[in-house]
Amino acid sequence: GAVVSQHPSRVICKSGTSVKIECRSLDFQATTMFWYRQFPKQSLMLMATSNEGSKATYEQGVEKDKFLINHASLTLSTLTVTSAHPEDSSFYICSANPDPGSYEQYFGPGTRLTVT
Amino acid sequence: QKEVEQDPGPLSVPEGAIVSLNCTYSNSAFQYFMWYRQYSRKGPELLMYTYSSGNKEDGRFTAQVDKSSKYISLFIRDSQPSDSATYLCAMRVAAGNKLTFGGGTRVLVKP
User: Fold this and answer.
1) Under 8 Å CB-to-CB from B83, ≥6 apart: which residues?
2) For the residues of A28-90, what is the DSSP string, one character each?
């Protein structure tokens, strides 16, 4: 199956700093990637849809200036958490859609962010 | 009310038993229905996919969709301890590729 990687797998940062998370599709091209946030024992909450070469579409309630998304190539999307605060601590997961018309989304292994 | 409801569990069963999972939903426009398995601190992995109503079987897994009742199910036969995970249902409308997830059910299969 298609493989999606995320880097880093775990990051600890100080409050007020920015953190960048990378999502890569390793063996396919993805015109669309998704960013999710998952709190402990809760489901995935879609944050934004990232389309290659265009601006991301953010879900209601997600601050676009805080969660910067860049999808500069067909295999890479990045999520930057700017001026991180402890309440931003969470598990961030990306997924990639190889075909816009397909139901398939392949998920990355997730990134655990802890803001101290 | 959430668009997709799923009992959080935990659901504890002995090894070899049938695991029965389900989700209910409110949006009649959902056409594609998926089940994902997620191990602790890992990303979700697609298990089953069904379009519209009907049944689908793949090995030990059977997915059922009843659109008239807005109810979907996943059955796992001959459960193994390695099936212990959180199972998430997800669905989407025909147009677009955005998934709506249920809250997930934690399953424990005891040896």
Assistant:
1) B19, B76, B107, B109
2) S--SEEEEEEE-TTS-EEEEEEEETTS--EEPTT--TTTEEEEEEETTEEEEEE-S--GGG-E
Banded pLDDT at A1 (limits 50, 70, 90): low
- Let me know: does B21 contact B73? Beta carbons within 8 Å: yes
- Looking at this protein, which amino acid is placed at residue B91? M
Q: Two tokens at A69?
A: 């998304």
pLDDT per position as a tens digit, A58-83: 999 999 999 999 988 899 999 999 99
* CA B10 from centroid of its chain's CA atoms: 14
pLDDT of A5 reads 95
Put simply, the answer to whether A41 touches B8 (Cβ < 8 Å) is yes
Using an 8 Å CB-CB cutoff, list chain B residues near A5: none
